[in-house]
Design goal:
Number of helices: 6
Oligomer: single chain
Number of domains: 2
Distance between the termini: 48 Å
Structural class: alpha/beta
Mean pLDDT: 81
CATH topology of the largest domain: Endonuclease, Chain A
Helix content: 25-40%
Strand order of the largest sheet: 1-7-6-5-2-3-4-8
CATH architecture of the largest domain: 2-Layer Sandwich
Strand content: 25-35%
Length: 211
């Protein structure tokens, strides 16, 4: 973590949580729910559906959420990238080997959660730790690094995930079919998802709007 070592010692409150005596996932979920303005995540891989759902709900609370993933996640069937993009969350794939720290969550430019590896470890039966650094200075430095990585998008080294609108369909809580947006059979309580995801869940295409 070049450039922030000194800040760790001068300005930081540091908490260390060990999986052997603490439920790390509960801590992560609690911090996400406490967010008031912005959440930035950076991981090589990300397949934890429970955390992804929490991020989706944060977006619904009008929290700005941005996610940077390793380049291989773009084609991984287990990645939550597509799911989060459908929730209007900015998802980027880093194919540049930028060196940006992989394994962190920044919240409100105040606190940063550092993981020893990818976030998926919090669901694994393994011993690991979570380092929480409460320091606006550290968060500001890391956010600057994050933004510099994203500027590489113009150089086609970082690929922002885009979901074609025609691949997005909608379902209702009690319905068994998926619809196009604007279908007369859609109700106010609708949920967006990809056509592939809808079909995998057993939904059939609406015969009226023909999505």
């Amino acid at each position: 973590m070049p450039g922030i070592t000194l800040l760790f010692f001068l300005f930081s409150q540091v908490n260390i949580f060990f999986s052997s005596d603490t439920n790390i996932k509960d801590i992560v979920i609690h911090r996400i729910r406490e967010a008031k303005r912005e959440i930035i995540l950076s991981f090589n891989s990300f397949s934890d559906r429970e955390i992804a759902k929490e991020l989706s709900e944060a977006k619904e609370r009008r929290i700005k959420v941005s996610l940077l993933l390793g380049g291989r996640e773009a084609t991984s069937e287990y990645s939550v990238g597509n799911y989060l993009a459908l929730k209007n969350i900015d998802v980027y794939y880093d194919t540049s080997l930028s060196g940006f720290f992989q394994g962190l969550i920044m919240i409100d430019e105040e606190q940063t959660l550092f993981f020893p590896c990818d976030i998926n470890i919090i669901s694994a039966p393994a011993n690991f730790y979570l380092l929480e650094v409460i320091s606006p200075q550290v968060a500001k430095e890391l956010k600057g690094n994050f933004q510099r990585v994203l500027t590489e998008a113009k150089k086609e080294k970082v690929i922002k995930l885009s979901i074609r609108k025609e691949n997005i369909v909608y379902i209702t809580p009690k319905g068994k079919k998926y619809h196009r947006e604007g279908c007369r059979f859609l109700k106010k309580e609708k949920k967006s998802l990809s056509k592939k995801e809808a079909e995998e869940k057993g939904y059939k295409p609406c015969l009226v709007c023909k999505p």
